[in-house]
Design a protein that fits this description.
The protein is of the alpha/beta class and 266 residues long. The chain has one domain (49-188, 218-265): Rossmann fold, CATH 3.40.50.150. It is built from 7 helices and 11 strands. The radius of gyration is 18 Å and the shape is globular.
C-alpha cells in the first residue's frame, strides 16, 4: 500500500472518526470507526464470482452432500445458537428465507423443526446440492430475485460482510419481511479474544472479500439506523481446533469471535 493511499471516512456510516486497527499486508488494512463501532477493509475488495465458487464443497467434490454430523463442534454450537433464537421468537410454520446458505445444511435443520423454508444461493453447484436436500432453492443473488412472497424471518450467515453497503442491504431485506418480521445475522466479532490474540493472522479478516467487520456495538448501530429492535443474541466461537483458551472463553462468551443476533422490524 502506497503512503499516498488515504481513507478519510467510514464506508458504513461516513464518519471521519476512524483509525487503523490492523495492518494486514501491503495490500490491505482494517480501519476502525469510532462512530458506528464497526470496522472496514481498505481498500475495498473486488469480489469474486460467487456463482462459480462453492465454500461448502468437501474435498473438492461439488456433488457430494456434506453431513451435519461431519462438521466441527464449533459449527454445531453456532447452528444450535441460531436455532434457539429462532424457536424462542417464531412459531412453527413461519416462513424463513436464508440468503447465501450454501448447500442448505443449516436451513435443513430449520426445516426439520417445522418451519417453511427457502434458500437463495449464488453458487450453482451448492444450490444443486441444496435441492437434493429437498429444499426450495433460487440460484442467484438476493437483489436479482423477484420474490413472490414475504417472509417471517430472513437469515444470513457470514453474508453481510460481503456486501459493500450493509445498511442499504438491510433496508432492502426489510421490504421482503412480513409486518414485525425478523432478520437473523451471524457475524464474526472482531472484538473477541482470538482477533486480539492472533492480530492479522486471524483468518476471519478475509480482506480480499470482506468489506465490513462487526462488533456487538456496531450491530446495535445498524439496528438503530435501520429501525430494528434487538430481540436477542448469542456468542459462539469460530473453528480454531483444540485450544487452551476454549475453557476460558466458555466463561467469557462476549470474548468469543462470532455473534448471532436477531433483529425485529418495528
Amino acid at each position: 500500500m502506497n503512503s499516498s493511499d488515504h481513507v478519510t471516512t467510514c464506508t458504513i456510516c461516513n464518519s471521519s472518526h476512524i483509525r487503523e486497527l490492523i495492518y494486514i499486508s501491503g495490500k490491505a488494512k482494517i480501519m476502525l470507526c469510532e462512530n458506528c463501532k464497526n470496522a472496514f477493509t481498505y481498500p475495498k475488495p473486488v469480489l469474486p464470482d460467487y456463482s462459480k465458487g462453492d465454500f461448502q464443497a468437501r474435498a473438492g467434490d461439488a456433488k457430494k452432500l456434506t453431513l451435519f454430523e461431519d462438521l466441527p463442534i464449533e459449527i454445531h454450537e453456532s447452528y444450535n445458537a441460531q436455532l434457539e433464537l429462532i424457536q424462542e421468537n417464531l412459531p412453527k410454520g413461519s416462513t424463513v428465507l436464508e440468503i447465501g446458505g450454501g448447500e442448505g445444511i443449516f436451513l435443513e435443520l430449520v426445516k426439520k423443526r417445522g418451519f417453511d423454508v427457502e434458500l437463495i444461493e449464488p453458487s450453482v453447484t451448492a444450490a444443486n446440492r441444496a435441492k437434493k436436500r429437498g429444499l426450495t432453492v433460487y440460484n442467484g443473488y438476493f437483489k436479482n430475485n423477484e420474490l413472490k412472497k414475504k417472509y417471517s424471518l430472513i437469515c444470513l450467515g457470514h453474508v453481510l460482510e460481503h456486501i459493500d453497503d450493509p445498511l442499504t442491504a438491510i433496508d432492502e431485506m426489510k421490504e421482503s419481511l412480513v409486518a414485525n418480521g425478523f432478520i437473523l445475522l451471524t457475524q464474526t466479532n472482531f472484538k473477541g479474544f482470538m482477533p486480539w490474540f492472533l492480530k492479522k493472522k486471524w483468518y476471519a479478516w478475509v480482506p480480499d472479500q470482506h468489506f465490513s467487520h462487526f462488533s456487538l456495538e456496531g450491530l446495535k448501530y445498524l439496528a438503530n439506523r435501520s429501525s430494528l429492535t434487538i430481540k436477542g443474541y448469542r456468542y459462539s466461537r469460530l473453528v480454531h481446533g483444540p485450544s487452551i483458551y476454549h475453557t476460558f472463553l466458555k466463561y467469557t462468551p462476549f470474548l468469543q469471535d462470532q455473534i448471532h443476533i436477531l433483529f425485529q422490524a418495528k
